[in-house]
């Protein structure tokens, strides 16, 4: 008898939750894949940090830079796209940013892993770091492939003409004034 009175006020409101998975920018599968990317690139970075000697250190430093960048920026992107924080940063093309970033990191991880693999010596830590570098490359490549498969290449879609506003949206009054001036 009292249930109809309390039901509307006690049901959770999913719009008020902190984590917005699934959202317009990140579905559940890609969220899990982004978490895997963060974990694999972090493990590759940590394992690379355990390498205590190198014959030529440039490949080691390049791998360190790329794996650390992949970890930090993917974590940032994951937090932005899975919360409401992306609304605070006025970027209208989040799918394009995500796709370009993921593709570039996949290529850089592949290159740095290949270079580091060629010059790792016989160190076990370096070998394991390279393996995790290649695993992270595979995860980023799968993510990029899923984005292309589901949405296509956003910057090649000529049928969708979007006005670039650098994230600033014009108010409705300005649009009405512009429409009245042309009449």
UniProtKB/TrEMBL annotation:
Keywords: Membrane, Transmembrane, Transmembrane helix. The keyword Membrane applies. It is found in: Membrane. This is MARVEL domain-containing protein. The chain crosses the membrane at residues 59-81, 93-118, 124-148. Residues 162-183 are annotated as: Disordered. It is a multi-pass membrane protein. Residues 173-183 have a biased composition (Basic and acidic residues). It holds the Pfam family MARVEL. Residues 25-152 form the MARVEL domain. The lineage of its organism: Eukaryota, Metazoa, Chordata, Craniata, Vertebrata. Its main location: membrane. One of its GO terms (cellular component) is membrane. InterPro entries: Marvel, MARVEL-CKLF_proteins.
């Amino acid at each position: 008898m009292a249930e109809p009175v309390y039901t509307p006020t006690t049901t959770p409101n999913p719009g008020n939750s902190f984590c917005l998975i699934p959202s317009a920018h990140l579905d559940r599968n890609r969220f899990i894949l982004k978490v895997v990317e963060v974990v694999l690139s972090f493990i590759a970075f940590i394992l690379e940090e355990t390498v205590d000697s190198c014959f030529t250190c440039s490949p080691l430093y390049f791998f360190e830079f790329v794996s650390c960048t992949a970890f930090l920026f993917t974590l940032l992107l994951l937090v932005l796209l899975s919360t409401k924080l992306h609304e605070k940063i006025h970027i209208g093309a989040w799918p394009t940013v995500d796709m370009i970033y993921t593709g570039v990191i996949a290529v850089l991880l592949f290159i740095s892993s290949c270079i580091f693999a060629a010059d790792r010596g016989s160190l076990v830590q370096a070998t394991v770091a390279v393996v995790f570098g290649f695993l992270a490359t595979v995860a980023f490549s799968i993510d990029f492939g899923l984005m292309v498969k589901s949405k296509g290449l956003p910057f090649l879609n000529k049928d969708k003409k979007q006005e670039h506003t650098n994230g600033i949206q014009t108010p409705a009054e300005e649009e009405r004034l512009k429409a009245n001036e042309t009449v």
